[in-house]
Structure formats: C-alpha cells, structure tokens
Specification:
Radius of gyration: 20 Å
Number of strands: 9
Structural class: mainly beta
CATH class: Mainly Beta
Oligomer: single chain
Largest sheet: 8 strands, antiparallel, barrel
Helix content: under 10%
Number of helices: 1
Length: 195
C-alpha cells in the first residue's frame, strides 16, 4: 500500500483534463480515513484507498471507495493476554449529491452502503513456574459488517482537473461481541481527478 498510493497520485498528476465535475465524466482519486469506534475502550482505526466515480451532472454522482487498513487497535489485558483488531478491507458504494456554493467550493452529501472486513486476534501465553513463555495460544477470527452509511463533506476545486475534499461519515455499527454494537464514524480527506 505504501507504493500504491504515491504511484496512483503520480499517475493522476501527470494527466490533464478539460474540466472538473463536468456532466457525464469519470473521476479517480485517493483518500485517507481516520475511523473511530465508540466502545470501551474507544478504538482508532485508519485506512487508505482509492476512489472511482461517475459524475452524472453537476449535482449528482455515483461513487465507490475501496480502502485497506493501515493501522489497528491493540491492548494487553494482562501480561499473558493480548487483543488486536485490524481492518482488512472496506468497500463503499454511494450516491453523492453536490451543491456549489462558489466557483471553488461545494458541499456534498453521501448515502450508500459499506462492507468492512476486519480481523480479531487474541493471544494467550502460557508461562512456566520461572515466568518463561512455554506455549502461545493464538485465536484468529475474521469478521465483516455491512449496512447503510451516510455523510457530509466539503469539496475544494484546485484546478480544472483536481479537487480536494474532506468528509465525515457515519458507518454501520460495529458488533465486536455478540449482541453488543458500537457506533462507528470516519473523517476522510482525499483528492479527486476528473477526466
């Protein structure tokens, strides 16, 4: 992923397009997402990824985002037990409604579905009487959450081809323990290129 994002940005920067968010145009981009899960304790998970969209007209677009986890959450419950949680992949499909407030700024709203795949690893160490590790008992669980999400954001047009955006999204609740769900939100920043 460390090579993919700079390469994507370099390719996008080397191409020129006649207009940004013109009707019936495609756009590509990259984003970084800081995500918070409100639980006890709170979790901070980060992702980075790519964006592809189709601008139907100046007010509406269809957009998809695909992210890969870049950092996760870990906690030691005792000297012998450790818990880790990481996002593997996250895919979203949105309807995006935009409204221009000036020549360079526009506000937008997103509504769609997101599917997140994540991994939970718990490790228990067994020690002998002298305190030396003798055996490790790992437990590895793959989980997924999907559902409706929505958000709002601000777009800034840098040039005819490039724009920066920031948005805030409410993701589907994350169920880590059966029957217990936690609210999940993200703040995203990125760049789009229209062609």
């Amino acid at each position: 992923m460390k090579i993919l994002l700079p390469l994507t940005c370099t390719v996008l920067a080397s191409i020129y397009a006649p207009s940004v968010y013109a009707e019936n145009s495609w756009y590509l981009g990259a984003q970084y997402s800081a995500q918070d899960v409100a639980s006890s304790p709170d979790r901070e998970l980060n992702t980075a990824g790519i964006i592809a969209g189709y601008q139907i007209n100046k007010f509406f677009a269809l957009e998809t985002r695909f992210n890969i986890g870049t950092s996760g959450y870990s906690n030691k419950y005792s000297p012998d037990q450790e818990y880790k949680e990481d996002i593997d992949t996250q895919a979203s499909l949105f309807i995006k409604g935009s409204y221009p407030i000036s020549n360079t700024f526009s506000i937008f709203a997103l509504a769609g579905v997101t599917k997140s795949k994540y991994e939970i690893t718990t490790t228990a160490h067994h020690t002998d009487i002298d305190g030396n590790y003798t055996q490790v008992y790992p437990s590895f669980i793959k989980c997924s959450e999907s559902g409706f999400n929505y958000g709002v954001g601000l777009n800034y047009k840098i040039s005819e081809a490039f724009s920066l955006f920031i948005d805030y999204q409410v993701l589907p609740d994350l169920t880590i323990v059966s029957g217990v769900s936690s609210s999940w939100n993200s703040t995203n920043i990125g760049v789009n290129y229209s062609f």
